[in-house]
Amino acid sequence: MTNTDICNFLVIGVDTTFIAASAKSAGYNVYAVDYFDDVDLQWACNDYRSAIKHYNGESHKDRSTFFNPKVLLELAKNLAEKWRIDAVLLSSGLDDRFDVLCELNNIAPILGNSPSTIRNVREKQVFFGKLKELGIPHPRTVVVKSVLEAKEAAAGIGYPVVIKPAGGFGGIGTRAASNPTDIVKAFSSASKISDKVIVQKLIRGFHASISILAGKSAVKILSINEQLLGLPSVFQNEPFGYCGNIVPFQTTKSFFGKCQLIAEKIATHFGLIGSNGVDIVISKDGTPHVIEVNPRFQGTLGCVERVLGINLVDAHVRACLYDELPTIKAPSNFCTRLILYAPKRVVVPDLTTLKGVRNVPPPHSIIERGEPICSVLAEGESRKTSLWKATRLAKVIYNRLQPLNW
Q: pTM to 2 decimals?
């Protein structure tokens, strides 16, 4: 396959808006399957399907909790019957569904990691075993299926631990546990999302991610990013829930070198290609501990493109097909993405006129407490300025929401 063979991309996942916009900007026809019915996704697509459709006066309760990848697959098949699809670009939400990935790959080839490669980095017990062989720092991790197994695993690992769904995303259902009583509550939350549950040593430190681009012969770090998790200021009810990023995370040359070595070892061993992300926790001694690999485009895409001045879909295509990696300039600015969640049951006004708002819901949508409303992006010459601008825009949006009491 060459890029001249690709005219029509199918972009699929929970949140495809940023990828679709990037693909359109790179000159491709874009057909998208998305979970949320974002207005700005429609602007970026030739055609699209959403698992959720917003109608006046209608609410979709617990939208995030009961996400079903099979629904996205059926919508993808529907689009493929209508349009010629040359290749597939993956967003979040499908990483742990090997069956869905294989069926998608039959519709059109996934440009990036194959389903088998994705499975290899997402099968947690095997993945962390390989990290140990490679000498890559990581928290001790055990996969369990019952509360009893979780208690035994936590006792063996040593408290405190993190309990998370093996097949989850965005930090939903993830809880910390300091004793057996906590395990029961945490397991209940995680098991609502996935049959298999992960018990992992809690590493206290700074949450970050490494955005990498892998060709067949080389791996390059695009950026190291600050992760924003569980922020009360954006009404994220999940303690480890994803709230956005600040790009870049400023580091020393020594720390960057550690991350580069980790990226090279993981990408080379598992055969990763294209855009990938590595979630890490930086402990107090400055060690990056690998938490997981996201073997597809990440939620940092919009910020990374703005800070580096690149088109990430174009870079992904060139890395996958031609083993070409871009020259990365030193960042001269910062970009913050905040994901805003509903503080209570609300009606959302028309947000399309506000500059910097992404993942825009249709006007008059009803959003339940704790569910995502939209994203805001803001750039600045410093981290502080970028975050301040994003926070200011978030306040404007929150002030425009109309509360509902029924």
A: 0.95
Alpha helices in 146-239, H assignment, sequence order:
147-157, 180-191
* In-domain check, residue 383: yes
CB 213 within 8 A of CB 222: yes
Backbone dihedral angles phi then psi of residue 338, each to the nearest 5 degrees: -115, 130
Q: How many domains does the chain have?
A: 3
Contact call for residues 212 and 198 (beta carbons, < 8 A) = no
Cα–Cα distance for residue pair 48/101, rounded to 1 Å: 19
pLDDT of residue 167: 85
Q: What would the pLDDT profile of 172-184 be if each residue is shown by its tens digit?
A: 999 999 999 999 9
The pair of structure tokens assigned to 401 is 């929401």
Specify the residue for token string 């569910």: 371
Q: Are 228 and 376 spatial neighbours (Cβ–Cβ below 8 Å)? A: no
Task: State whether 86 and 229 are in the same domain.
Answer: no
Claim to verify: residue 185 and residue 223 sit in the same structural domain? no
pLDDT above 90 covers what percent of the chain? Answer: 92
State how beta strands 87-90 and 8-13 pair. Answer: parallel
